[in-house]
Amino acid sequence: MSSSVFAQENIAPNPMDTNKHSTIESAAVSGDEIPWSIISDSDGIKTYRKEIPGSEVFPLKGVTILNAPIDKVLTLMLDDDRAPEWIDLLADIKLVKTYSASRYTLLYEMDSPFPLFVKKRDFYLESNFIYNKKEKAVTLSLHSVQDASVPEQRGYVRGHIYKSVWNFTALQKEGKTAVNMEYQVDPRGLIPKWMVRAFQKDWPHKTLKKLDQYLQNETFDTSPTLLELVPELVKE
After folding, report:
1. What is the pTM of this model?
2. Which residue in 194, 197, 123, 198 sits closest to 161, CA to CA?
């Protein structure tokens, strides 16, 4: 593929793209009835995807067992400063607005997988922390929101996350944590969709593998926020 295709990333957005985005978004919110297809199974991590008719980007899912107790896992998940060390392609996270300890907005800045040809992406997201006390499970969900006070940054293309959901369940006897993460992301811009699919399909595996390695290799204190959000899951 010639570099001229990617050079178009620097062209101003076409207003006519609005209808195209609306079509993709309509397709993205459906598909619950479509079964997952496994695309990889290695390093104790299974990766799945769905093909949704009418959608140019597919949902992906990663499933594994993390070799760390849930309080350590959640402490890391709430630590924005450490996130670029294990989330694949993440350059930075900025906290924008805080509504409560469990709900806030974040600006994600992502590196380009092809920096010579494709611009970096940013995503403005609302994050929600949900605790199921009975199941000893926590859900962290993120999705794109719009805010005129947080415009697209110069040098970036504003991408769209329809869904990013991380489900964590404590395996207390084993001292481990089961994780199931699903996401559907449209980087937007003029990247060919075949290329989006090519690099996105490996993202769950790379991220979950780095997450587990980080948890095993690094030590850090339990977040005091967890004492407020999930006191029953925090080890004394």
Report:
1. 0.84
2. 123
